[in-house]
Amino acid sequence: MKIELLKLLNFRNYQQLEISFHPSLNVIYGKNGSGKTNLVEAIYVLGLTRSFRLSQEKTLILDGAISTKVEGVIRNRYKTTYTVLLNKEAKKVMINDNKVGKLSDYISKITIVLFHPDDLRFIKDTPSTRRKNLNISISEMNLDYLRVLNLYNKILKQRNAYLKQMIINHHETTSYLDILTSKLVDAGLYIYQKRKTFLEKVNSYLARLYFQITGLEGLEIVYRSSYEKKSKEEILQAMQSGLEKDLMLGKTSIGIHGDDLAFLLKGKDLKEYGSEGQKKNAIIAYKFSELEIFKEKTGYYPIFILDDLFSELDQEKVQNILRLLSSDVQTFITTTSLGILSSFENHLYKQIHIEDGHVIGESEENGK
Ligand SMILES: Nc1ncnc2c1ncn2[C@@H]1O[C@H](COP(=O)(O)OP(=O)(O)OP(=O)(O)O)[C@@H](O)[C@H]1O
Ligand SMILES: [Mg+2]
Q: Which of 15, 71, 150, 237 has an alpha carbon 20 to 30 Å from 175's alpha carbon atom?
């Protein structure tokens, strides 16, 4: 999957932009605050209709403007024009100028794997952030996953509310609770299985990629779930034994809403032991794994965005990462330093020089 052309209107600090991209490598360079992340963010918004930044959606609109438009021509098997229109109240998406009613029908069309420095939260942050990142990874490949996850969360809320009611009313019979519990476990087991399979797939690539980047062996992700190796009956039994505790807390203690994962390097948790660079490289290896999993599933590579990839990495790791880039994958790299470009000698690529929301230079490099 490749993006050939991108048009922006009033997006962040771009009033108007029309730019074509190289089918394999695009290097976006410029000073801090020039608009590099904004540009790759626009590609992300084109695909997913939302940003990867935590900022409010309306900040995507150029200050002072009332709406923004992101349009892109994507080539997969066919050439397709995608459009995202956003004003302060509403969002509208179109494919080849036809309005698409359901966002989920639109989002499933364009696949993107993104690395952003905030992704280090996948290692550093809380279990809930790790679950969120994992959910994003899996639901990009499987929309049913998102549907079932939403269902799980809805039933979980109902169960928790009912537990609280039982406490207040000194309610003893559990027949309605049992129905909710059973439904919850059905949805939970589906999510558990998808998470497990996905992480197993990641693990089939991760160690090799991490070794290629860092020369270190033995990286793996371990998945921790209260459902681990349990049948439905065993989970129901465990929940039955935990009922008293649930009633005391007024919430459900066993379930996939408590899942977590860890990146272990030779058995040691990178969160506790890893250096900043080791963590960053682990996330990068995870992203490269995602590319391969997408390819396995869909037959083509997603668009690959690497924002601020190079900060904090030594020259050797940078070289190793660049060596992993395949010309089959359309890749976008942002950087403040052109010096890094000496590393691209074996690639065909396009340089895009950004200054203050404008492209002030574009050139195709032929490499060697
Ligand atoms: N809605 C908006 N309207 C106008 N300008 C905006 C808007 N949102 C962000 N900006 C501006 O965009 C700039 C930031 O752009 P961006 O994050 O793309 O920088 P960058 O080139 O990636 O910088 P760095 O190298 O520091 O990561 C800032 O100057 C910010 O004020
Ligand atoms: Mg940036």
A: 150
